[in-house]
Design a protein that fits this description.
0% strand, extended, single chain
Length: 73
């Protein structure tokens, strides 16, 4: 699968959580997922991670998707 979904929980009883959700879902912020990604990107640019905590991303193999799907066939 080429996507990873990360749910974000908001407590309906919490005034603080309700305020955050209302703000994030406002029309002027656009798509919720894109808004969260922009926030993460802005944070990364403001506070680069030290080299010791950076995540190493392995290049994707050409046959990775086909191999993963073979278990479902």
């Amino acid at each position: 699968m080429s996507r990873k979904i990360k749910p974000v929980s908001f407590n309906k009883v919490s005034e603080y959580d309700a305020k955050l959700l209302k703000y994030a879902e406002a029309k002027e912020r656009g798509n919720f997922s894109q808004y969260i990604k922009r926030l993460i990107d802005a944070d990364m640019n403001r506070n680069p991670m030290p080299a010791s905590t950076q995540v190493h991303v392995e290049p994707k193999r050409e046959d990775e998707d086909a191999e993963a799907m073979s278990g479902f066939l």
